[in-house]
Amino acid sequence: MTYSLGEVEALCRKAARGAGFSWGMADEAGKTARWLCKHDLPGAAALAGYLDTRQDACGPDDPALPDWAANGPLCPLVCGTLLSDMGARSMERRLHNLAWPVLLLPHVGGDMELRIGPDKRSQDDPMIPLAPLATVQSKQDSTGSNRPPTTRATIATDDLEILTRFAARTYAPETDASKLSGAGAGLKDED
């Protein structure tokens, strides 16, 4: 089934919040998935994979250094936000043990690119769950996709189930008081 980019963003935002991210970081996750889907990359699938396998959201131990590392895998959402907030797009960065590197792409900027290892671009193989070394550097060429951005995205059933499971954690539990006040079908459902 296909979904509008707005639906993808909303679901991914709720899923990230349900997975324990702050609302601000969850908003970044939704925008990241939307951007990837708009550029014909599997944004919802990558976010579902990341949320389903992540441990803690680790940022780099010292973001001022050109080499970013942490005690666990680096969170692509935290690293992307740091790159954007620091205005560090012009400086080359080496990210060690970056989880789901494709999720960093929207934060890299138009004059930079993300490379996995010495010669592979993240968008060439977007479903890599962990990159031992990723480099954010100046673009070496200007070849890009000439495809127009898409307005809809397909989400596989397995990925949709993962995102929906995490999103459900943000919903308030149903109570008798909420039913009496008009939420849902009430205490007596006559459908």
Notes on the structure:
The protein is of the alpha+beta class and about 190 residues long. About 40% of the residues lie in helices and about 15% in strands. It contains seven helices and seven strands, in the order βαααβαβαββββαα. The strands form two sheets. The chain has a five-stranded mixed sheet with strand order 2-3-6-4-5, with no helix packed on it. Strand 2, helix 4 and strand 3 form a beta-alpha-beta unit. Helix 1 crosses helix 6 and helix 3 packs across helix 6.
What does the average pLDDT come to?
85
Low-confidence stretches: none
Distance between the termini: 27 Å
Largest sheet: 5 strands, mixed
H/E element sequence:
EHHHEHEHEEEEHH
Strand order of the largest sheet: 2-3-6-4-5
Helix content: 25-40%
Overall shape: it is globular
Radius of gyration: 19 Å
Number of helices: 7
- Tell me the total number of β-strands: 7
Short summary of the structure?
This protein is α+β, with helices and mostly antiparallel strands and 191 residues long. The chain has 7 helices and 7 strands.
Which keywords apply here?
191 residues; alpha+beta; globular
Reconstruct the topology from this structure.
Elements: E1 2-4, H1 5-18, H2 23-38, H3 43-53, E2 67-68, H4 76-86, E3 93-99, H5 105-108, E4 112-116, E5 120-121, E6 130-138, E7 152-154, H6 157-168, H7 176-180
Parallel strand pairs: 2-3
Antiparallel strand pairs: 1-7, 3-6, 4-5, 4-6
Helix pairs in contact: 1-2, 1-3, 1-6, 2-3, 3-6
